[in-house]
Amino acid sequence: MKTSRIGRLALAAALALGAFPAAARPAVAKPAAAKPAAAKPAVRADAWWKNAVIYEIYPRSFQDTNGDGIGDLKGVTQRLDYLKKLGVDAIWLTPFFPSPNADFGYDVADYTGVAPEYGTMADWDELAREARKRGIRVLVDLVLNHSSDEHPWFKESRSSRTNPKRDWYVWHDPAPDGGPPTNWQSIFGGSTWAWDEKTKQYYYHIFLPQQPDLNWNSPGLKRAMYDVMRFWLKHGASGFRLDATPYLFEDPNWPNDPDVKGGRPVWLKPYNSGLPKGNAILRDMRAIVNKAPGGAILLGESSTATIEDLRKVYGKNADEINLPMDFLYGNLTKLDARVFKQQIDDAHGKLDGLPPVFFFSSHDHSRQWTSFGDGVNNDRIARITSAMTLTLRGTALMYYGEEIGMADLPAQELKDFPLGPKRRVADNRDPERSPMQWTGETGAGFSNGASWLPVAKAASTVNVAAQLADSGSMYHWYARLLELRKTVPALRDGAYVPLESGNPAVLAYARVDAQGDGVMVLLNMSDAAQTATISGWPTGPRTAAAVFMASPAASAVAGASLSAASLEPYAARLVSFRGR
Ligand code: BGC
Description:
TIM Barrel, Oligo-1,6-glucosidase, domain 2, binds beta-D-glucopyranose
């Protein structure tokens, strides 16, 4: 598939479907109220996921162990010690199931199998076991809106109108003129309807024609997908990253869109996304993961247009998706302290205390090194974006290679790279999916064979081995942030306190624990030196203790003050303080 730039942006912003039905905001409990107020949805204090760091792995590009140029599950197992040392709590594996790869695994042909190119079920079991030993949880990507057109379910479904699985997919008679039943457009371009010559009906696909939508109105399909979840939980998964959740249902009246190419974007049309029935499915799924021993979760691909819509994705009683990704933050690509302040204050103030999920990079997004970098100050800028994501309250996602400052593969390095059996189609998300850079050798320690996507030339200098040996490297910057997140109570569970920096280029906030101890974060988001005069502290005594971390390193020498700071261009500074 060659997604268009528009298709790709649509995708990143899509899955939007925060348009789930309006949920009344639970009232804040008042201690001595005459009438008991509705309880605020709470997350258990010991919930492992509410402040976790979840590391996304695109297995095809992480570590190849059999020389075929495609990463595999054994490769992930081999790198668990690395991930443990880095300090991640969980990994999310993008699809590794049998698939014709029209959309690189997001077209699943067998939900409970492992594609031979990634290994075997025994390899999965070993990965789950070894991860558990190290205290790392593994999330499986559940592509629940659609399967591959090569899935046996679809083959049966399309075999005849009377096949028992006919209703597992969304079939429709043609319009009176013989054309598609509606004028709706798919997210990847073109009509959402594909004609089936044999049974003389159209089937519906919000993504590619090779990705027919599953019909969640069918009790049989529902049972089968819930069984898929139970299968992976039984095999050691700690939950699921749910793909494209907003699209489970369509308007049963199938209205034509009078303004199909205008109005709301194609991924946010009221007839194709966010239909209320979706909430009941997500509640069922939450109940399934809740039953798994050890606390399994749902991480949602839940882009929304507003923070209010994002709140709804958690479920009115916080009983749907545990961790809906915050695309309002994740889609930002411009360093602007005012915009970030607004977004972060909202995520902390308007989600009823539920944990926000911050991230920038993914297999669908440009890498943050590239999207925020200006070509000159990328290293400092990457330290700002990582310091922000990893010091905020809530859960943080990382994308493989982010910790060494991997960039998108430059266009000229991809230009003439041949298609073939390992890469049947070019995809404009290829640049952010290039092989992990482990060493400076040929193949970057990713594979001994010809890799499915080119290894970036930058790997000769930007690689794990080099950075492990350099205490000032990006790797060590990330490892230290992850360590502080774990060991400093304020960064782990502390409240978020917005501060004023008195300077539009400087973002300032603090995390404060129950004792009043904490960490102040200052980020200069400009290419000029800046001063900040910090205000907005809650009342109470407070003494600066030390500069915990600083970029550039010289900044640490500037001393710790809680009221004023001089910051170098693109500086990041973490100042610890005591509440006495
Ligand atoms: C995934 C994409 C995929 C699409 C269709 C998205 O949400 O993240 O990579 O192309 O779903 O499955």
